[in-house]
Amino acid sequence: MKRLDRSRAVAFFWAAILDIIVIGVLIILHERDTALKALLDRITGHHWVTKSLMTCVLFPGLAFLFYRALGRRPAHKSEGLAFWAAALSTITALFFLGTIAFFVLEYFT
Amino acid sequence: MSTVQKRESGRRQVYFAMAAALVTVSGLLLILLSSPRWFGHGLVSLMGLVSGGLVVVAGATMAGRLSRPGPDTYREHRFQGILFGLLMLAAFGLGLVATAKTGKPLFGSLHGWLGLAVAVLATFQVVSSLLVRNRKRLRPIHRLVGYSSALLLPLQAGLGLAAGVTGATRVLVTGHSTLGIAVLVALIWVIVETSQQEQFHLERASFAAWAAVIGILLAWLIGGYHYLTVYGPQLKSVVLNGEWPWAHRIMMEAKEHLFLFLPVVSGALALLLSTGDNGRPESREDVRRAALLTAWFALCTLTVLLVFGAFISMAAHPAARLYQ
């Protein structure tokens, strides 16, 4: 099996980070904007199903695109996968805690 | 092994045994005095689960699967093995007491029968290891029974959690929670495989990460189906009008959305482990560090979601009749 260059593995972190930003922002926005929630409801019949489908399409799609794009450039000696892992964890943690904080505030106000 | 090391190891084992005894006594008191009665049984089982994990880790280390065995690995394996056997027997006994108190048949559920199976397997492991002198002949059976028990434990924990918090052992919730715990185990496996630079097993870590992804996808499907067909139409209003409305308005609202992050994070982890290594040593180390960090993060996120799930199920407990 052909070994792939490390630089291409970064594509999965970039795809994951973008996916989480899009879904995370959508979660907060659709709770504030009833028109957006209604739109998401209309697409599949339930807003949660729409967001699930978006996740199913967005992450593999972006990963494929980034992976292909990175394949065209030469491999770098050090791409810093650990840095991108930390970036993914930090961004996801921010949206994770932010979403919980949002619903806690909604409940008490 | 020096005398100081032996003393330290012995002291650690004494503390662990004291903690196990304390947990068992507390479990018995909780069953006799409090409601819900399964809390005591769950507490002892949780301690057993920790001890069982340590038995498997020490056993796998002795076999050279994880890292080089240390001077006290065998002692640790034997000590935790005996303790695990005793804790499983205690958990099984307390489970019987708790069930008897409710007036239900003692073996009326799969959880009860599996509990009996785990208790029998644990007893066999301890007794056979202590009595049989020629351990070399016993080793293949010992490993087979050990790994079988390790596989049964997450299933048993999931069944127990679902039975305890929903008041009924129903297929969808049971499947969802069992898969969640199985994913937890798979992520711990990834962490074990990637935690040491010298003992980094890329192929096994990759296998465990893909197992986690499959578990999450199945939990997503089952949980989603339950959410849309049972929870939304029937249980949501009961939770909102019950004693814990926050279980829906904070925990369920957050959980249904935050769950969507897990397949993405674990998917990135599995893809990284499958394709990230280009054969150079510095690349391998970078992959290991990135995988370890991502696996730890996924584990923490999943733990929060499991706790949320348990609270939501407990809030829906008065509505368990709707499952009938």
Can you put this structure into words, describing what you see?
The complex is a heterodimer of chains A (109) and B (324). Chain A is an all-alpha fold and 109 residues long. Chain A has one domain. Chain A contains 4 helices and no strands. Chain B starts with a helix and ends in a 9-residue tail after the last helix. Chain B is globular, with a radius of gyration of 21 Å. In chain B, helix 8 runs antiparallel to helix 10 and helix 9 runs antiparallel to helix 10. Helix content of chain B is 82%, strand content 0%. Chains A and B meet through helix 1, helix 3 and helix 4 of A and helix 7, helix 8, helix 9 and helix 10 of B.
Can you lay out the helices and strands and say which pair or pack?
The complex is a heterodimer of chains A (109) and B (324).
Chain A: H1 6-32, H2 34-44, H3 47-71, H4 81-108
Chain B: H1 3-33, H2 38-62, H3 73-102, H4 110-131, H5 135-166, H6 171-194, H7 202-241, H8 246-258, H9 261-275, H10 281-315
Helix pairs in contact in B: 1-2, 1-3, 2-3, 2-5, 3-4, 4-5, 5-6, 5-10, 6-7, 6-10, 7-9, 8-10, 9-10
Short description:
Chain A has 109 residues and is mainly alpha-helical.
Please report which band the strand proportion of chain B falls in: under 5%, 5-15%, 15-25%, 25-35%, 35-45% or over 45%: under 5%
Q: Given the helix and strand composition of chain B, which structural class is it?
A: mainly alpha
* General shape of chain A: flat
Give the tally of structural domains of chain A: 1
Helix content of chain A: over 70%
Average per-residue pLDDT of chain B, rounded, comes to: 81
- From the alpha carbons, calculate the radius of gyration of chain B and give it in angstroms: 21 Å
Largest interface: A-B, 46 and 39 residues
- Total number of β-strand segments of chain B? 0
Could you say which structural class the secondary elements and strand pairing of chain A correspond to? mainly alpha
SSE pattern of chain A, N- to C-terminal? HHHH
CATH class of the largest domain in chain B: Mainly Alpha
Major sheet details of chain B: none
